[in-house]
Design a protein that fits this description.
Layout (H helix, E strand, L loop, with lengths): L1 H12 L7 H7 L13 H4 L86 H72 L19 H10 L1 H22 L9 H22 L5 H25 L4
Helix pairs in contact: 4-5, 4-6, 4-7, 4-8, 6-7, 7-8
Length: about 325
């Protein structure tokens, strides 16, 4: 019984008789591959395709040819493998991403989102481009400084001209006012002279016929009466004041000899006023001629003086 079971077991697990080679070919059964002759361990090794789901591994399809031993096959995700003939990147030199190629040394790399400049606008980094802006800035700076100097000079000239004009107007006003004061004193003294002169001629019979303010100068001879008038201390003081006023006005007139163009008419009127002023003041300090000529000259000079003075006020600008 044990022998029978053993035989059945042997028959169940015994290999079937292999058909001859011709029968296998006729039946379509492929011939078993023969093992290649191993000559080198590197030639014998054939890496299996890498699973696409494995993290950190490159994606290869089953139909891709195997990579030769010694070449870089496991490139990081999103990066391209180095081409044949290029060295494999080291850990200290990271492989740049495929979408950001490394530009040649010295070329401009635009920021992310900007286009690469074309050849017409491309300027290599090693060209000393900073010298041209620096030179241009220096030229512009020189031009600006020169312009500021010219503007400052013109402004200074205009300011001086404006100040000179204002000083001229102020001196003209002061001069005319001084002549008015001197003419007023000369007018008062000239009126007294006419009164004494006239009384000495027409009222020579008695001092009581003279006005009280001139009785002290009474004489039946007008030359003596006028001498008494000019010998009075108050008259001498008035004459001194008039002469001092003449000297002051003369000094101021010498400063007005070169008037601005727009003040030429005012200067001409001032000169006419000055001539009438001299006539009035000279008559008061040194009376000459007859009573009639003295009175007429004094009256004309006094009238003309006031006319010129009023005209000058309209010609002097109020600044």
């Amino acid at each position: 019984m044990d022998e029978t079971l053993h035989n059945e077991h042997d028959e169940a697990f015994a290999p079937s008789a292999s058909p001859i080679d011709g029968e296998n070919d006729a039946a379509g059964v492929p011939e078993a591959p023969s093992m290649p002759e191993v000559t080198n361990a590197v030639d014998f090794f054939t890496p299996e395709p890498v699973d696409a789901a494995s993290p950190g591994q490159g994606v290869r399809s089953p139909g891709d040819p195997p990579s030769p031993m010694g070449q870089y096959t496991q490139e990081p995700q999103g990066q391209a493998a180095p081409s044949q003939g290029q060295p494999m990147p080291s850990q200290s030199q990271p492989v740049p991403p495929q979408d950001k190629p490394v530009p040649p040394q010295g070329q401009f790399v635009p920021p992310q989102g900007q286009a690469m400049p074309n050849a017409a606008s491309y300027v290599p980094m090693d060209v000393p481009a900073k010298k041209r802006p620096t030179k241009m800035i220096a030229i512009i700076g020189c031009i600006v400084v020169a312009a500021l100097v010219v503007v400052g000079f013109v402004f200074f000239q205009n300011a001086n001209a404006q100040k000179s004009r204002e000083d001229y107007i102020s001196t003209m006003e002061t001069t005319s006012f001084s002549m008015l004061n001197g003419a007023a004193e000369a007018e008062t003294l000239s009126n007294t002279i006419v009164k004494v002169w006239n009384s000495a001629i027409f009222d020579s019979r008695s001092a009581y016929l003279w006005d009280s303010d001139i009785q002290e100068y009474y004489s039946d001879d007008f030359n003596t009466a006028l001498s008494l008038l000019f010998s009075d201390p108050s008259t001498q003081y008035t004459v001194s004041e008039i002469e001092s006023n003449q000297a002051s006005v003369k000094n101021m007139m010498s400063k007005l000899s070169n008037p601005p163009e727009d003040l030429q008419n005012a200067y001409n009127t001032l000169m006419d006023l000055y001539n009438e002023y001299l006539t009035l003041t000279d008559l008061a300090t040194s009376p000459t001629g007859s009573l009639q000529t003295f009175s007429a000259t004094f009256h004309d000079a006094d009238t003309n003086f006031m006319n010129y003075y009023n005209r000058l006020e309209t010609q002097i600008p109020s600044e």
